[in-house]
Design goal:
binds uracil; Rossmann fold; alpha/beta; 6 helices; binds 1-O-pyrophosphono-5-O-phosphono-alpha-D-ribofuranose
Length: about 210
């Protein structure tokens, strides 16, 4: 795939190692959840590199100084339900004061088109850096619709972070929202006839929540 502006595919060995463990069908719910959270934290570290800071006055044992701290109230994490929920804690461990919105979408099993069932975003959304999280970017329909909904609510500075992407979904998301920075843990080969990512990890929501 050609290099795309605003798209970063992570190549850190720790992230790759943990994603390989996620893919393993023998990895059970407990470990799967823990890995998703750890990967979200490691990826979030990179995705939030340009988070705004503000200088605050600190008294060190030696003297007073002005020194940068995260302007945490300016950030929002928005998981796409359900599977995105698994990534929230990892990012919150980096920015505990971030607000959390929720967007509910599920893929119609026949058409694979996203169906909206919930949207609640922190206000005022337009002033915040918004990190949308979902482990899987398959056709790109859910991610693209979620970002459209956030933009309709006034969101401007939007980032999207997924653990595994298919080339088809990455292309679609980038074409629909070229202004959005996209962070991908691993870029897989293709979608199969059921719009599942190959090799992928199966159904992320089912593996996180132990459903099927
Ligand atoms: C999965 C996943 C994404 C979506 C990706 O959710 O978590 O939201 O599919 O597919 P797409 O890129 O083709 O839209 P799913 O619809 O299975 O819902 P769930 O998280 O509630 O299980
Ligand atoms: N949703 C998933 O959870 N996995 C896929 O491979 C595609 C969509």
């Amino acid at each position: 795939m050609e290099t795309m502006e605003n798209v970063m595919v992570m190549d850190h060995p720790l992230i790759q190692h943990k994603i390989s463990k996620l893919r393993d069908e023998k990895t059970g719910t407990n470990e799967f959840r823990r890995l998703v959270s750890e990967i979200a934290m490691l990826m979030g570290f990179e995705a939030l590199r340009d988070l705004p800071t503000e200088d605050v006055e600190i008294q060190t044992p030696i003297e007073k100084c002005m020194t940068p701290m995260i302007a945490g109230k300016k950030m929002a994490i928005v998981p796409i339900l359900r599977a995105g929920l698994g990534m929230v804690d990892g990012v919150l461990s980096l920015v505990p004061s971030a607000k959390v919105g929720h967007i509910g979408l599920y893929r119609d099993p026949e058409t694979h088109e996203p169906q909206e069932y919930y949207c609640k975003l922190p206000e005022p959304i337009e002033q915040r850096t918004i990190l949308v999280v979902d482990p899987m970017l398959a056709t790109g329909g859910s991610g693209s619709d979620a970002i459209k909904m956030i933009k309709e609510h006034g969101g401007k500075k939007i980032k999207f972070m997924c653990i595994i992407a298919a080339p088809e979904g990455l292309k679609r998301l980038h074409e629909d929202h070229p202004d959005v920075q996209i962070y991908v843990g691993a870029l897989d080969r293709e979608l199969n006839e059921n719009a599942y990512i190959c090799p992928g990890l199966g159904d992320a929501g089912d593996r996180i929540f132990g459903t099927k």
